Amino acid sequence: MARKIPATIITGFLGAGKTTLIRHMLENAGGRRIALIINEFGDLGVDGDILKGCGDETCSEEDVMELSNGCICCTVADDFIPTMETLLARENAPDHIVIETSGLALPQPLVRAFNWPGISTRVTVDGVVTVVDGKAVREGRFAANLAAIEAQRAADENLDHETPLSELFQDQVACADMIVVNKSDLLTGDELDQTVGDLKSGARDGVQVVHASMGALPVDVLLGQGIGAESDLDARHEVHHHHHHDDDDDDHHHHDHDHDDFESFVVTRPEIADPQAFATQVADTIRAHDILRLKGFAAVSGKPMRLTLQAVGPRVDTYFDQPFGDQPRETRLVVIGQAGLDRAAIEAALCA
Questions:
Q1: From the CA atom positions of the chain, what is the Rg in Å?
Q2: Which domains does the chain have, with CATH numbers?
Q3: Would you say the pTM of this structure is higher than 0.85?
């Protein structure tokens, strides 16, 4: 019987560092061919582009598949299962599949989907990894920017669970085989020890709690856990029941959120001269205009590589990821915030 392909589910709130963790994994994959399924939705699949930027045989562009119809746990049958079937139908099967969920996803329904006929004989859940923002958890906030999470919630028309963040966090921890306390560099030694200890006490026996800065974990720690989580659902049961099922109501009237309360737009500008100065400029613009999230790419004068930029709240992370190639050398940023943003002022600030 053919060996089942291992799949790792990576979950956690917006801004916890899931994409950064995955990118580090790809850059240190040690020859493994990894396929990615990314639960991105919005105007631009920037997270997908960031991960496609690995640009080598470890993860070719065809190995990155995006689910853009909303929260993955709410679209399992319509979105996730067909994507998995397409992936498994390829002649060159990947060595490992990594699934990055939406920040609002409940991991249990996704694990349950691996018992679907046609999937269960081909793939097994190697492990569920929950990434948490260490500093935010230490401060009792679960995420660095709660308003950004609410914006994500409001933008997802397919979301069918209105889960308080505290309960969603408990479910992500309850399902985890490994908890990664990310951004550990923002904590003191005592704070980190206390955070790790608290998470261990709230997790199932045997769950590993590790810490990382910028998602830097050895690949052999992250992959190859061999858990078979789909056969262990009772041990990782949902702490709370969240999903709404109403056959007479398919248009999601149960949402309290007005989707017009949030907006996003794209700002383009020519090349920048100084990446560090531009990161400061972006941070200043975010603070001045209450921007929830900003991400995209910049062209830097004299540099063939594009500069990837991601900002959640005041924290701005940048790195060079791949050559521009035939793409236009321009800076392109997605701005997300509550309705009423002063678009002209924000564009002027980012283009100054």
A1: 20
A2: 5-236 (3.40.50.300), 260-351 (3.30.1220.10)
A3: no
